[in-house]
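PROTEIN FOLDING TASK:
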Amino acid sequence: MKKLVLLLFLGASFMGQAQKVSTRSGFVKFFSDAPVEDITAENNQVSSILNLEDGSFAFLVPIKAFQFEKALMQEHFNENYMESGKFPSASFKGSIVDYTKIDLSKDAKYTLQFKGTMTVHGESQEITKEVILLVKGGKVSVQAEFLLKCSDYGIEIPTAKKDNISNEISVTVKFDYA
């Protein structure tokens, strides 16, 4: 419930009374491609809200909800790198650029940009990334794949682990809105 309240707070500050759609089962996956090992984790507990009038949107990612193949990786991720007790969530707040070009009354696929503030590990960065917006059967979904650098968010990778964990992490997000 805390997640939803925080997400609604994030959304309310820039959405007013506009028509909104949301999900509490969004998807975020990350992948670290390093010389010694690949690391993948998935999270299906991501909340997101989208303003259908102007394209502003936000999402909130609970860090402890990431699932790894190995329990030890998950433990190290939460305790040593993400410090999820101190930084329990990551978030994005921004908008889809050129959203006004979208016709929500017709099934279509749009390739646009999203722009805003990504906050991870207590550090915020302005980002602009490509996003795919799909309209099908009156429903909207948003998908994006992009790279984030751990160093941009104050996540330190010890020298001894540089071959195990990449500084550049591939991130995939997908939100199907109701």
Q: What stands out?
A: The CA atoms of residues 99 and 147 lie 23 Å apart. Confidence is low (pLDDT under 50) at residues 1-16.
